[in-house]
Amino acid sequence: MAIVSIVMPTYNGEKYIAQQLQSLSEQTFKDFKLIVTDDNSSDNTISVIKQFKDKFEIKIVKNEKNLGYNKNFEKAISLADTEYIAMCDQDDIWHKDKLSLLLENIKENSLIYANSHLIDEDGTSLGISLSQKLKSNFISTHSVLPFIYANCVSGHASLFKKELIPYILPFPKKIYYDLWIAVNAASLNGVKYLDKDLVDYRQHVNSVVTKEKLNKKKDKPKRVNKREKLHTDSIDTIEEILKSKLLKEDERKLLEQLKLEHSTYGENWINPALFSLLNKNKNKIFAISPKTYIKILRKYYFSKYTYKYFPI
């Protein structure tokens, strides 16, 4: 039996998927199988995949109805029965040593992830990594706190152990699958960052994730109170993280306190309790994106008369 399951949800991916499959066939680590869950593609995605069946083991499952990006990944992961699971998008290009390096360096951790190099629709380098684009610290951690307001763990650049599966399925509805997996991995045996670009991460407007984000924006009311929205989004994220069965008691307590303060925000006044919580724990909570700390205070938590004294 293979050691690694590469799980790949697909949907109308014929344009780029051959490049991704070719990169899988060129991996220096060969003991893997590919699990494809196709979300009712109307193009030649399945036909292209079948052309690679003589290069490595492939299992193709066609969904009876369209599940969407998050749920399709959930289904693909549920079908994995190997010691390690690697998540894979249909339109990226893996570097040849991606699997070998992730397996070599995961050690006792539940999950390991790497950086990505950005390419455009045509595969041309954009000269920047994902961490540089996000202006974030990519970190190793055993804490869920850095994931409250930011995420540095991308599914397409990750490998995790099967020990996580009982804790991550089913996925929650209000946060993306890779954030949920990262939260549980951090709590179990840790998340490790490998400081290498191991994926060419394609940027284009027709990607499934981009389309889902655009659709969500269309569904939102045109006039949105930005302060209220940030608190609402924070509550949604915290509520989902609180569903993890692996949370440490002190972190659960802090999350519940943060949720309470987000729920009782004031429109034009300072929230001392929220400021105190964030300030006391800022090195942990904002480990991924330190600038987020000042941005949040300046734009949303202080009144319009006080935030101007906190420059970014």
Shape category: globular
Quickly count the domains.
Answer: 2
Low-confidence stretches: 208-215, 303-312
Helix proportion range: 25-40%
- Along the chain, the helix and strand elements come as EHEHEHEEHEEHEHHEHHHHHH
Write the CATH homologous superfamily of the largest domain: Spore Coat Polysaccharide Biosynthesis Protein SpsA, Chain A
CATH architecture of the largest domain: Alpha-Beta Complex
List the helices and strands and how they pair.
Layout: E1 4-10, H1 17-25, E2 32-38, H2 45-50, E3 57-62, H3 69-78, E4 84-87, E5 93-94, H4 98-105, E6 111-119, E7 125-129, H5 130-134, E8 158-161, H6 165-168, H7 177-188, E9 191-202, H8 208-219, H9 226-241, H10 249-263, H11 272-280, H12 282-285, H13 290-301
Parallel strand pairs: 1-2, 1-4, 2-3, 6-9
Antiparallel strand pairs: 4-8, 5-9, 6-7, 6-8
Helix pairs in contact: 9-10, 10-11
Characterization of this structure:
The structure is a single chain. This protein has 312 residues and is α/β, with parallel strands linked by helices. Helix content is 39%, strand content 18%. The chain contains 13 helices and nine strands. Strands 1, 2, 3, 4, 5, 6, 7, 8 and 9 form a nine-stranded mixed sheet that branches. Strand 6 and strand 7 (125-129) form a beta hairpin. Helix 9 (226-241) packs antiparallel against helix 10 (249-263) and helix 10 runs antiparallel to helix 11 (272-280). It starts with a strand and ends in an 11-residue tail after the last helix.
